Amino acid sequence: QVRLVESGGGLVQAGGSLRLSCVVSGVSGDIFRINEMGWYRQAPGNQRELVATIASGGNTNYAASAKGRFTISRNNFKNTVYLEMNNLQPEDTAVYYCYFVTYGIWGQGTQVTVSS
């Protein structure tokens, strides 16, 4: 059974930083490394939206709101994808979800709250 577990969320002041992690279990490293991974977020009352994706070869794609502040990366030896978030702002407050694109599987989410 494929499972995604996020961690690293929390409460931070505006201008602060957080690093989210997502560990994928139930698949081999060979499977993980060839698959695209993504981070999405959902704020109260809003639809879930793309934050960033990373392809198997390392190519990345960012939402306009994330460009220049967030960095997505992956460690294929640890079946883990990361989201480094800098200069966080109150509008970044949301539940952040990891997404295993090919399998269409979501993690349970981790709350990020940014205070002004």
Put simply, the count of helices is 1
Alpha-carbon Rg, integer: 13 Å
Average pLDDT reading: 96
Low-pLDDT residue intervals, each spanning 5 or more residues: none
Largest sheet: 7 strands, mixed
What is the helix fraction of residues, given as a range? under 10%
Number of strands: 11
* First and last CA, distance: 40 Å
Work out the strand percent. over 45%
- Described by the principal axes of the CA atoms, the overall outline is globular
Element string (H = helix, E = strand):
EEEHEEEEEEEE
Counting helices, strands and paired strands, the structural category is mainly beta
Describe the structure.
It is a single chain. This protein has 116 residues and is mainly β. The protein contains 1 helix and 11 strands. It has one helix at 29-33, and strands spanning 3-7, 10-13, 18-25, 37-42, 49-54, 60-62, 70-75, 80-85, 94-100, 105-106, 110-115. Strands 2, 4, 5, 6, 9, 10 and 11 form a 7-stranded mixed sheet that branches. The longest helix is centred in the first third of the chain and has 5 residues, at 29-33.
